[in-house]
């Protein structure tokens, strides 16, 4: 990780500053989360300029609707990444975007993303490869579908031709695998 | 706690974290998280792992984007701080009320004025026309009078000329047995071959409508008719021109039936004058 964080705060501190709409909160928010959110957005939309626009849009939305965030319901990042994911998925599901990228096979898409990414972001290449390799292929594809393509679990079940319960279990297994990896 | 374990293992918490469940299911998960710390802890683990997963594959956006994003946030921020009570002041467009459209009475009045003028003009025209008619009548009457005057003047001039003219012979006809008091002058010009009688100076009884006086000339012993005339009390005629005659020896007037006779009724001879 080559992040050069200028400001770093605890999540509780950041939330308090954000509620007060302090200038420093905006800066800390960006410095702490822009790279993580941009990574997710870029993996979804697969296009840098668009990803940057969506990142900006995401921060504006976070900033403006911060009052609707409640720490009781979960972590700040979960709330933020879902905003970023929804904006990104809306974009790739829009007509314009679909016309640009004619239906591509899920697996091909995953490969394409990896290829594109690796071509541009060589420093990250290793880490991602390593992470992806900890997941089994079926775990990887369910995570891709739900996390990066915005499929509902019903749609994912249809897409993969597996029962609904299996989708949930597989997703849980994939995330458990991630948990193991990070612990 | 079997239920909780089964709930955790169902995979719904993962879907919750990924935001892939319905609002109803979401409320259910939040309810379970409040009741069961194990659910809460599990959720937290899932969230943390997904956050770390994202952090693992985080990508630094371009350096320029930081300022761009912060500017878009802080523009709003400075707005919020600098103008806390700022209300959307509506740019009220200056509305200048148009003067209430007056009922355009000008044309009404103009029309009325024109009509009035027309009526007055027509009245004046009729008045002037009638005056003109009167004037014309007066003028005609005056010119007629004038003509009469000039006629009279020229006639009298003629009479004067006649009296001055030495060519005229004045013959006084004297009253005869029938009317001894009567007399009349007759003028005769052999050069002009004209015979005139002096009506104004004539002394003859007024004749009735059944009779007329007839002037005769005696030429070579024979009576020649020179025309008839009337004696009226209101006659304005001074001299009356009669038929002409060449060489008369005498003139005479007889009273004849209306229109005259071929031969004179000698018994009714009123006046006679020898040349």
From TrEMBL, chain A:
InterPro entries membership: RNA_pol_sigma-70-like, RNA_pol_sigma-70_dom, RNA_pol_sigma70_r2, RNA_pol_sigma70_r4_t2, RNA_pol_sigma_r2, RNA_pol_sigma_r3/r4-like, WH-like_DNA-bd_sf
Keyword Nucleotidyltransferase set for record: no
Superkingdom in the source lineage: Bacteria
Keyword Transcription regulation: yes
Protein keywords: Sigma factor, Transcription, Transcription regulation
Pfam families named among the record's database cross-references: Sigma70_r2, Sigma70_r4_2
Annotated family: Belongs to the sigma-70 factor family. ECF subfamily.
RNA polymerase sigma factor 70 region 4 type domain ranges (all copies): 128-176
Protein known as: RNA polymerase sigma-70 factor (ECF subfamily)
GO biological process, one term: DNA-templated transcription initiation
Gene3D superfamilies for this protein: 1.10.1740.10, Winged helix-like DNA-binding domain superfamily/Winged helix DNA-binding domain
Record domain RNA polymerase sigma-70 region: where: 29-96
GO-annotated molecular function: DNA binding; sigma factor activity
């Amino acid at each position: 990780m080559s992040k050069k964080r200028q400001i770093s705060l605890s999540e509780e501190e950041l939330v308090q500053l954000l509620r007060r709409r302090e200038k420093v909160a905006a800066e800390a928010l960006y410095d702490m989360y822009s790279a993580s959110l941009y990574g997710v957005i870029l993996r979804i939309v697969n296009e840098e300029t668009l990803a940057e626009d969506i990142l900006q849009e995401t921060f504006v939305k976070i900033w403006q609707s911060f009052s609707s965030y409640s720490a009781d319901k979960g972590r700040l990042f979960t709330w933020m990444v879902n905003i970023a994911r929804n904006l990104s998925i809306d974009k790739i599901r829009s007509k314009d975007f679909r016309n640009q990228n004619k239906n591509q096979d899920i697996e091909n898409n995953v490969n394409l993303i990896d290829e594109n990414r690796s071509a541009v972001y060589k420093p990250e290449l290793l880490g991602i490869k390593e992470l992806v390799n900890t997941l089994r292929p079926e775990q990887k594809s369910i995570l891709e579908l739900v996390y990066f393509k915005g499929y509902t679990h019903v749609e994912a079940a249809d897409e993969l031709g597996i029962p609904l319960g299996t989708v949930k279990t597989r997703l849980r297994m994939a995330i458990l695998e991630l948990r193991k990896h990070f612990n | 706690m079997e239920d909780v374990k089964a709930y955790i293992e169902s995979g719904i918490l993962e879907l919750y974290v990924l935001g892939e469940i319905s609002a109803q299911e979401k409320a259910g998960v939040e309810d379970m998280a409040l009741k069961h710390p194990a659910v809460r802890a599990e959720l937290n683990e899932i969230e943390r792992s997904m956050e770390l997963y994202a952090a693992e594959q985080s990508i630094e956006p371009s350096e320029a984007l930081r300022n761009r994003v912060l500017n878009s946030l802080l523009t709003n921020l400075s707005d919020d701080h600098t103008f806390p009570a700022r209300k959307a002041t509506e740019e009220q467009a200056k509305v200048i009320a148009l003067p209430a459209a007056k009922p355009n009475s000008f044309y009404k009045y103009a029309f009325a004025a024109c009509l009035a003028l027309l009526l007055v003009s027509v009245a004046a025209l009729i008045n002037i026309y009638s005056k003109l008619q009167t004037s014309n009548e007066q003028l005609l009457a005056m010119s007629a009078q004038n003509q009469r005057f000039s006629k009279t003047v020229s006639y009298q001039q003629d009479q004067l000329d006649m009296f001055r003219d030495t060519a005229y012979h004045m013959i006084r006809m004297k009253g005869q047995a029938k009317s001894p008091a009567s007399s009349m002058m007759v003028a005769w010009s052999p050069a002009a071959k004209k015979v005139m009688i002096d009506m104004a100076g004539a002394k003859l009884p007024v004749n009735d409508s059944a009779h007329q006086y007839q002037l005769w000339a005696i030429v070579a012993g024979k009576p020649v008719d020179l025309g008839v005339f009337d004696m009226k009390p209101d006659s304005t005629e001074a001299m009356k021109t009669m038929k002409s005659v060449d060489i008369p020896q005498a003139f005479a007037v007889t009273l004849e039936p209306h229109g005259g006779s071929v031969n004179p009724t000698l018994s009714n001879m009123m006046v006679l004058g020898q040349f």
